[in-house]
Amino acid sequence: MKSVLSLPLTRVKKIILILDENCLDIKAAENVTVMKKKRQDVPKTHSFWINILSMIKPKYFYLSIVVFCLGYMCVIQLFWMLEKTSRKIRSDILKSNGTQNSILKTCPRISPNLKGQRKLNLTPCFMSECSMETKATNSSPENCNMMYCNNNASACVFADCSRHFPATSQSRQFVTKECEVNNTNETTEDHFALLGQFGGYWKPNQCLPIRHVAIIIPFRDRREHLCILLKNLIPVLVSQLTEFRIFVIEQADKKVFNKGRVMNAGFLEARKIYEFDCVIFHDVDLIPEHDGNLYECGDQPRHLSVAVDTMNYKLLYSYLVGGVLGLRPQHFRRVNGFSNNYWGWGGEDDDMALRIVYSGLRITRPAAKVARYKMLTHEKRKKFEKRYDLLRSARQRMPGDGLSDVPYRVISTQLYTFYTKIQVDVGNTN
Known about the structure:
By secondary structure, the chain is α/β, with parallel strands linked by helices. The chain contains 9 helices and 15 strands. The strands form 3 sheets. Strands 5, 6, 7, 8, 10, 12, 14 and 15 form an 8-stranded mixed β-sheet that branches. The chain has a 4-stranded antiparallel β-sheet with strand order 1-2-3-4. A 3-stranded mixed β-sheet has the order 9-13-11.
């Protein structure tokens, strides 16, 4: 091989030039390989925007950035406006339901408002039934649904608790403060919480109630007792944070009182008006003494009036369910309601106890220390002489005597402030 030094200078320059070109090609190939590897490492989203930007001519680059930012801000503004509108709609719905809270929690089963043993308000009073005006007009109810009287019948005071509301809905919110009693003659302590809505309906506005109760009061010629019961019962139900509606079912005919038919008719009519998950049949002469006695239904029928003052606060016998009894609607249908055949005083409650047992259910009760009631004095109805004969045949009669075939006719349905009154004709004794 010839030495490089022996070659001509021009030849040496050509050899050097060829070597330089080969080196550049090798370096370029290495750079391409590195760029491909980097391109593979770039995320797809980044590579997408890099490709978009690479297609933009340099002179339009900054303009494109400005347009992109403006578009992004418009999208953010649109989503913000939609969220604001959604919040306003939800707020309006909650306000229409009587609450300002954006998020409502479930009411506790044991309310913090309970006071335990309550001081009873037994001041003689009677209900002055001022009905609501026709719904077609925007008139307001009169302020005379509750009246208090002292021992001197000439000195009466009215509870001025209602306010002006459009008479277009049954869900009007009632006054949420203690009632102001107007009396120019003397000072009275007959204040009690009249929290509720018209038609005897009320629900808490600070939480979602877990109880939805229909109170059914069989009624006839007990106006004084009804007034005393309501002004003591309503504060108990309110303090328990229970959603409730009170139904007064009055036997309006002149026949002997049939409590079973009245309560069966009341259940069927209340079901048409109010959706409840617990029905409590409540005697008009039993006043609750303790608000720890929860007005609720469980998995079994629940007898609430365990300890009554006239019975020395003791349960007379284990199958007693008279006074105040709560049942789930499905349980009441399962036992086919009350018997329709008991006229006068006594028998229908014991018949119900037998129906509960024969249906495979059992009677439950709260503790006697809270299930305390005071019984108002009244004249007893005439005893039903055939009640013992009917009790012997209770099991055989149960499928065809009760809720499934109760004979009644609705005479009128009237909405008052503290209750819904339904007058019924319960048919003949035969």
